[in-house]
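Q&A FORM
Asked by: J.P.
Topic: structure of GH18 domain-containing protein

PROVIDED:
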Amino acid sequence: MRRRSLLVRHRLLAVLGLLVALLIPTAPSSAAAAGTPPQVYGAWHCGDDFCTWGRVRSVAEFDSMNHWLIDRGDGRPSVNVVVLSFVEPQKLLRLTDDATTVDGVPKGMTPEIVQYFTSRGVRVMLSIGGITYTDEWDAALSENATQLGLNAAALASRLGVGIEIDYEQNTDPNLTALQAFIDAYRSVHPYDASGSRPAARLTIDVAAGDRWLIAVNRKATADWLRTDTPVLDYANAMVPARQPSASAATASWQEHVDGKPQFAPPVPPLAPAKFTGGLYVAYGRSPLPECTNFAGSLQSATGSYVQNVAPNGAGSTPGMLGYMFWAAEKPSTRGLGTQPPNTCEGGVGAGATAYSVPVPMPPLRQG
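REPLIED BY: S.T.
REPLY: Here is the structure written out as tokens.
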């Protein structure tokens, strides 16, 4: 009887052990978890006036609001690129001087602010457009797309920065003129795979997935973001209307990897090495874990996907290019920004450490 009890007990323990093994997922190998580390890990930056950059700021005052970007707590930057947002396209075309702009550029986008970042190894880019300036993009492209491209190239040379195209026209975008803008820019700053010339860095923003900004995304993927004949350096898959779940974020990014063959005309697949994924760090009235708590953040929860997603028809290497965060300091008239006391060393900065983000940014994968 005792032997039978022991046998039953051993069988129960074996069954329990099997159940535990099934319920607790096996941890991936370190190589699988690590994958391809992010090369781009950056933040769009809206200044302190909701993306206008309309006034000159002292470096000391700017640092008091933004020190976390250049110091994650141990003296190393939290990011390796910042994108100052936004330049108004029509003003850049016409080299406008007004209360907030000089030579077509927001007054706050000064050489001193650029140097604040570049002196710490952080790359700087200027974003032209944004959703607020969609009509201005249309008008400037219609007026003189080539001159707009030449003016953008001259601005990049003058400040030692790259340029981001943020043309958020969802219905009938002027792609012929946008091609002329890109051709003009590249006539001054040819594509540079080494990444050694800041002004040669030219990128574009696309939607979080393939179902908005479809025409812009289709053109960019088919003609400008190819791995065999690259024209633009990479794309940023922007944030959706609100912070997604981890599964929703990766589903959107997978749409770019897969393309949309069922669309007419189809959207081709995009190489994972040719785009970043966007997440919010400032949204609503409560601090986000993406800003303050890496362990609970989406950049942590999606890390395995971002580092390991396989190409599906374009590209040859696994892993997306990295992350971009919307947006530093004060992106909206409502809700929190990332200025003190809501700074992001614990989220973005801790992620830079966890992923061993290189600062300065290295030459980017080309496929």
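FOLLOW-UP: The CA atoms of residues 125 and 162 lie 4 Å apart.
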